[in-house]
């Protein structure tokens, strides 16, 4: 590894031209992917050394990057529609199935709990089988559960079906994983924010879509108790259609599909036990688990309870309450990408430390507005508080996934899975503590949930990267530990490094130098754009 | 962003419309006179009634104990199906409220007839959309402006006697079940087909 030290032969030439394959050391000729002289020429967008796109063009459907983005967020959007499809129809369902408030609350907890396990599993599936299969499995294996709402006859059936439908929220992980392998680190927070935000919008759209579908079916002559069951066929059918599209149009990695690349030796197959161990061993994973539980978690809880809250407390009509509920979810369209963009901007100026500060600020401010929402006793103030709360919390979700891709390269999928599972865990926990009993009124529950979120956002101060620092600490001054390569190659054993299995991580480490603050990057390392080495 | 602004604006408009309701008179249940006598006789006794099938004979008239001009203000009689306390347990959306405009315990309207001084009756088929639950029947006497001035119910004041149970329709249908199974099989099947096809393609490529 002599070539990693500064000043050694060859390092000053790194990144001098934009079109060279930049590796820290020579690699086996057999694992090169070159079919033509310039492999980056076949991509529609400019790419980096890992063939990840450096530019984000949301209106394009170019293969493979933008196509993966659109398939990813649409899959996730469809799953959100299915998971929360019951929420706006609860007034009909609770009469048909003779449900009590406890039954409704428990079904709400069940609808988000299933995904805790499926998101974990999805992380592993993505690492081992690729994002395409992960997404397709999630969509097409849960579509039958959506159709089986037609069989529910009581509280137990309703709970069981909502629990099983909730499994499809695993598409969140496959969607974020897919974009993380397709897009460069400099823009990853914005891309992940758009994909996540536009997917989350499904939770808002469903509050408008399902009542509309229900009305149309009723006008066609069905009784209400049959119409809501038929209405569930719409999200189910959407899932199947999108699943087929993902399988036919999608591609796992910029260079091709995972199984093809693995067979050609271009991507090494990894062992699940290793992937799992390095994800679990990393303490940052668990901090992200908690953080996401109190940004996305409370967002999921609100999706389940806010319509009923406005209906009961302010005596709104069902349709009006539905519009309010939809507004909360629809804010995701710009709020989450904004969070991602702010994270990328902060990274450009302050590096990873900026990303961590932005995350803390957004999440805390959002939680404070949640406290205010619970205290508001007039309708306009409540709506204002709710909108500010939605922007803060959803931006925090976007900012968090600006940090997550850098926690690990080897276990990227599993960490996305664990973080995503944390979101659902937080939602189940807050619904259970604050909204399933008559101990607190819903208003008090909202304020208490906000207070708990403020407290549980404090741990972000403890996320420390030796190469980039943390909220309050500078990066390590140790020569070796302050290198990105050291951090990412520490996930591989010496034996594996000798076999060269960690090449992907080294490439990633090179590209992640963007997370150094601008001051540090200019001071001791030549930037590719200037191309002028500080010492020859 | 435009969608966002539109939704926000419609919210503000709706909320201001909502808050203007009930600005004038407030009808309280405790202010009503119990001057109507209501009876409900089913055609089938001692069984749970089926929504959409069973018939009930409902009669209402001024109580014999009522004073002479008690019914002077009555214009119409509204007969409603109300939830018994047992069907309200742990269901705050069916809560009884003294303020009649906010009361949610009598949501199902049976009939609304102009008041006639003679006893009136009706053969009512239990509505198909009636949910499963335990009920009693109440009649409100409303004045010219539509505000309730008197009431009567088939049960006692504590709503413990003369209650009847209704079994709602399930909403399930064989055709729905079959469609559900067909779509599910299609979903599984297409996934399997794709997996098999891709495995075969990968094997062929490897052999090359």
TrEMBL record, chain A:
Pfam families per record: MFS_1 (PF07690)
Record-linked SUPFAM superfamilies: MFS general substrate transporter
Any one GO CC term of the record: membrane
Domain of life, source organism: Eukaryota
InterPro entries for this protein: MFS (IPR011701), MFS_dom (IPR020846), MFS_trans_sf (IPR036259), NO3_transporter (IPR044772)
Keyword terms of this UniProt record: Membrane, Nitrate assimilation, Transmembrane, Transmembrane helix
GO-annotated molecular function: nitrate transmembrane transporter activity
Subcellular location(s) per record: Membrane
Domain Major facilitator superfamily (MFS) profile: from-to ranges: 68-462
GO terms for biological process, alphabetical: nitrate assimilation
PANTHER family in alphabetical order: HIGH-AFFINITY NITRATE TRANSPORTER 2.3
Full protein name: Major facilitator superfamily (MFS) profile domain-containing protein
Lineage: Eukaryota, Viridiplantae, Streptophyta, Embryophyta, Tracheophyta
From TrEMBL, chain B:
Any matching Pfam family: NAR2
GO biological process: nitrate assimilation; response to nitrate
Protein keywords: Cell membrane, Membrane, Nitrate assimilation, Signal, Transmembrane, Transmembrane helix
Transmembrane intervals: 178-196
GO molecular function ontology, one term from the record: nitrate transmembrane transporter activity
Extent of the signal sequence: 1-22
Gene Ontology CC terms, in alphabetical order: plasma membrane
Domain of life: Eukaryota
Function text: Involved in nitrate transport.
Family according to the record: Belongs to the NAR2 family.
Protein name: High-affinity nitrate transporter
Source organism of this protein record: Brassica oleracea var. oleracea
Organism classification: Eukaryota, Viridiplantae, Streptophyta, Embryophyta, Tracheophyta
